[in-house]
Amino acid sequence: MKARYMVLCAAMLFCGTLSAAEPDVAKLTSELKAGGEASYQAADDLADAPAAQAVPALTAALDSTDVELQRRAARSLAQFGKEAKSAVPKLSQLLDSPVPKLRAYAAYALGNIADNKLAALPKLIKLVADQDAMVRRNALEALLDLDVDSEVSLPILVNVLENSDPAMVLPVLNEMAEQGERAIPRLRKALKNERAAYWACLVAEAMGPKAAPLVPDLTEVLSSKDPGTRMHALIALGEIGPAAKPALDAVVKALENDPVPAVKYSAAFALASMEAEKATDALKKAAEGEDAFLTLISYYAVAKLNPNDTMMAQTAATFLVEALKNEDANVRAAAAHCLVNLDTSPELLQPILADALRDADPRVVAKITDAIVKMGPKAMPEVLKGLQDEKLRWISVSIIRRWGEAAPEAVKPLSEQLSTEDEQYQGEVLMTIGAIGDKSAGALEAVKPFLKSDSRGLQLNALYAVGKMGQGALSAKDDIMPLLDSEDSFTKFAAAWALANIAPEDSAAAEKAVPILTLSLSETEQGYTPSEAAKALAMFGDKAKSALPALKKAADAGNESAAAAVETISK
Questions:
Q1: What is the rounded distance in angstroms from the CA atom of residue 538 to the CA atom of residue 418?
Q2: What burial class does residue 93 get, using C-beta atoms within 10 Å of its C-beta: 0-12 exposed, 13-18 middle, 19+ buried?
Q3: Residue 154's closest CA among 213, 162, 138?
Q4: Which of 141-145, 394-398, 414-418, 443-447 has the lowest mean pLDDT?
Q5: What is the pLDDT of residue 3?
Q6: Which pLDDT belongs to residue 351?
Q7: Which among 554, 531, 540, 453 has a CA at the least distance from the CA of 496?
Q8: Residue 319 or residue 467, greater confidence
Q9: What radius of gyration do the chain's Cα atoms show?
Q10: How far apart are the C-alpha atoms of 554 and 537, rounded to whole Å?
């Protein structure tokens, strides 16, 4: 670096002041209108041009009928930050696009431009509950980047959550929870808002121990007028675990004095999860009351605090299973939550799985799902039955996906599910087949047709599934090779990644895939892409030697997978 600096200084002494080479904006603007690959490259290159000239050209490109050009224009506009403020109206229009990736990139760009007086804020907040995962993630991150006044955003967000399809609420809450520490300031404000506190508690639940900074705020929420909010504040404290011990006195008070039974149940659960041995006496006293369910929850809590008492654990499990049939949704939710945290006998739970999963309350369904996942594939017979039920198949697939490699016996039934005409469901099934890994190669013939799908999403899902099958899916190579010439950059990457997994010894595949994977090492939009690209290059071994300079650069920038790839390829 020092030598380069000295060369530049010498050049300035002998040749006068040097100016950095800038893109030929006029040429790029012209190419932007040419269509095809040339226009895509122009849109990318304009990201390095002066904002005053590039922003108007890229903004005009947002009106194109070419979706890929619109996407790239939005992506480049994002690089200019506040200097691209003039593009906000047209980017806001793309939030209504029927094309998920355009909604996603419009949200991404608006977040980078950071206009916190955004007129389209209600649209952006609505996208937090979008059916597409990338749209949800980008919309949520944009909202965090915009730092919009919570007095403005919270009422809109609460309204969106209250009126969303229950099946979409759980993914939305999980997206929020995945923001981790970044979400804490927003959640703290939400916990002080009467309508938003309920949803903030649900997010804190999903965050678990990472929500520990919210313990004082959750403790204050225990005085809320809404019993559902109090209940979920207690469950969140329980999910935080031992770090929630500062709330011990308030939780014991809720156990002893709250007028709503479900809140008392949740207090008992929280005390067990907090590992608060001091609460044992209070729990035993609660167990002596006339409320049968509080008795069983208290027994459960005492059992958790005294893990060597197996009889206590079995007694608690029996009562919890029975409580899943209770008319009160709050009771069912608390029972399901406790089952997740108790070593439950499959024989007790399996007979009522189907009925419990049909529950109208998404909280109950989520917790029952967790309980089944914890039981492992020994619950497979009941889960496979669920694939044949229109109302249960989504949940059944999600359970199998979480079992992953431990669920090879689900491969054939999942393959049969691909015959449905529901594209979203097909995509979830493909991702689940991929999660099973190399034991899913038996599904290859059912998956291969999706490699030629007109749906970008299904094509990407199929590439993931085939790639995870490993070399047992080698016969799919000829179907994947043409995708290396796709106009969609991520499809090209996914195809190259899949080939590295199924045909690492194939020189022809490596020749075309390695350059694509090398370029992907510098990808910034999808955080996982550089790491996955490095792992794929390592699979090609010495056939990927041309990627070594780029891999070393990525390794120097902190990409651990790239460092490992350098070592593998250099052997």
A1: 32
A2: middle
A3: 162
A4: 141-145
A5: 39
A6: 58
A7: 540
A8: 467
A9: 27
A10: 13
